[in-house]
Amino acid sequence: MIWEVFRQEQAGEYHTHCGNVHAPDREMALTFAQIQHGRRKPTHSLWVVPQPEVSEVDDEAATFGGTTDKSYRWVMPYNRVDPEFAEEIAESEAEQRDADEQRSEG
Amino acid sequence: MDLDTVKERAGPREFGPGDDMPEEYRKAATRMIQFHANSEIMGAYLEKPFIRQSPSLDRKLAFSAKTQDEIGHGQLLYRAAESLGVKTREQMLDELAAGEGKFLNCFHYPMTEWQETPMIAFFVDGAAMRRQATLKRTSWEPYAHAMDKICFEEGFHIKHGEDIMRELATGSKRGQELLQEAFEEWWPRILQFFGPTDDDSTHHDFSADVGLKRMGNDELRQAFLNAYIPKAEKYGLEIPEKPRIVEEDGTYEVIEEDLDWEEFFTVAKNEYPSGREQINGRKEAQEAVAWVRKSLDDWEHAGTAGASTQRAAD
After folding, report:
1. Terminal CA-to-CA distance of chain A, rounded, Å?
2. Given a cut of 80, is residue A94 above it in pLDDT?
3. Range of A38's domain?
4. CB B68 within 8 A of CB B251
5. Quick one: how far is CA B74 from the chain centroid?
6. How far apart are CA B284 and CA B281, in angstroms?
7. Residue A68: inside a domain, yes or no?
């Protein structure tokens, strides 16, 4: 059985999908989810959901976010600042520093 | 979805399990991700003995954490591969045990000495990281998601590998000599990490057309050499005369004919003797823990564990 895993970093925030685990029951899915997904990134709470219980609506069936241009509320158009300041290792390091900072703040 | 539509739409993270993908795409993606997953597992087995053999407690802990990460990466990737609906995880693990599953050339060679560890943990992992960073933009979304987590974790592995190299390179004369010896032994294998040039790579064109691969082997090898040759030199390592490497305008090119491609293809077919030993070693480990899998499966199929019956059990 596959269980979808959702992580909440801090109380009051959204649970965000972060992956899935193989487990034979709910209790073990929670245990495996802690080991695979709650070990390094800051974690306040985890949800596990049986994959067949998840339903989906996609962009063929719905127009997410409306039909007018709302690109201003995204980072992408602000492309005069270059986020590609470093390469893959530096990026990995920055991500880990971030996660660590968030952990110690939380 | 037909193949032309796939090629047209083949952007980063464009396709997922909800899309009806043509068989050619699903097979090519499975081949690629299965290879990647197998490599994570085989690499972990190569490094596992150093949990015991590390010269200090710090290194021991780091190798223990790293090995566990790599096995986890393997599991993430089998899940990403499984989501293509071509093979199950069990099938892929059994193929690996049977010597049918392919994996990275460098993990077919024995690693027994401490001074060899940075060859994997710095150079090979560094080469892998070059490739993996580009795969964050692969068209198969579950694969890209696995890459996010893997790249997030991998910085630790490579910095750890470099730290071992730094320690050896700045230590005793004897340590420096052993490091140089290990480097000379591993260097040709590391150069072969990205395989032969694109012209000879049968799978490249299709994988690039459908967005599975984002960068060709030549370009990746180039990018790797540009970053890692200066690193090797920084630690006083002498680049062996053969294979010849031509430097021009700050970029490097390997003279391919100086490398042993017969050995490479023997390795690629899982026919290299030390590679077979690695495969069989993991097979034995897989058999030794069969009871764990069996008890999990029995529990799952007993019917008390399924999602719909869980409420009653609760």
Report:
1. 33
2. no
3. 2-54+73-105
4. no
5. 9
6. 5
7. no
- Residue A36's CB: how many other CB atoms inside 10 A? 18
Chain A interface test: which of B152, B222, B295, B309 (most A C-beta within 10 Å):
B152
**Chain A residues touching residue B314 (CB < 8 angstroms):** 26
Amino acid at B257: E
The Cα A24–Cα A68 span in angstroms is 46
Mean residue pLDDT of chain B comes to 91
Q: What is the CATH number of the domain that holds A97?
A: 3.10.20.520
Does A11 map to a domain?
yes
Report the alpha-carbon distance of residue B309 to residue B306 in Å, rounded.
5
A54 contacts A4 by C-beta, under 8 angstroms = yes
Q: What is the 3-state secondary structure (H, E, C) of chain A?
A: CEEEEEEECCCCCCCEEEEEEECCCHHHHHHHHHHHHCCCCCCCEEEEEEHHHCCCCCCCCCCCCCCCCCHHHCCCCCCCCCCCCCCHHHHHHHHHHHHHHHHHHC
- Give yes or no for a contact between B129 and B152, defined as CB atoms under 8 angstroms apart: no
Q: Determine which of A60-69, B65-74, B150-159, B213-222 has the lowest per-residue pLDDT on average.
A: A60-69
Instruction: Indicate whether A45 belongs to any domain.
Output: yes
Q: Do A20 and B79 touch (CB under 8 A)?
A: yes
Above pLDDT 90, what percent of chain B? 75
Q: Establish, for the pair of chains A and B, how many residue pairs have beta carbons separated by less than 8 Å.
A: 69
In a 3-state reduction of DSSP, which class is residue B246? strand
Q: What are the residue boundaries of the structural domains of chain B, listed by start?
A: 3-271
How many C-beta neighbours within 10 Å does residue A34 have? 15
Residues B182-219 have pLDDT tens digits of: 999 999 999 999 998 765 556 668 999 999 999 988 88
Sign of CA dihedral A21, B314, A42, B59: negative
ipTM above 0.90, yes or no: no
Nearest CA-CA partner of B56 in B137, B129, B164: B164
As for how many domains chain A has, the answer is 1
> Residue A7 domain-assigned?
yes
Fold of B3-271: Ferritin (1.20.1260)
